[in-house]
Design brief:
The chain has helices at 6-13, 16-22, 30-39, 44-47, 92-107, 122-131; strands at residues 50-55, 61-71, 76-83, 112-118, 134-145, 148-158. It is an alpha+beta fold. Helix 1 packs across helix 3.
Amino acid sequence: MEPRDIDQLYIWENDPEVWIVSNTRQPYSKFTFREYINNAGKDIYATRQLRLMIDDKMGHTVGTIDIFDFEPFHLRAGLGILIAKDFRGNGYAEEAVRCVCHYLFVAYKIHSIYSNVMADNIISLKLFQHIGFELQGTKKDWIRTKDGFTDVHFLQLTHDPQE
């Protein structure tokens, strides 16, 4: 992340439609994002997370991908992605997920990457499964929505470095 990303993060993270999956309950200030970006250069082993911005070939930021719950002892990490509405359907998510998974497998020798996907997010479910993530289970009534509760699917991609 760069300081130039503050305005875009401010828009995306303060979108109430995103709050349901990010467990956000209130808007963030630009000051909060400045502080976040200033600390983002810290080592993944210290913070247990890493956020990367996704740019297209023209240098426009089209989304963000998060590595979270990085666990170096158990060699696993969580993965989440957001592509801006105007850029969806152009293959950015697939390319970014493939790239970050490869990076985690090679650079950190990660064995397992997982993602939690809301059951009604068919596009994301298809994306992760197309890449090779397997459905490992379902967390029933996991997320509270304005209409009640919804399930979340737990998907996992494992990698054997010997292969």
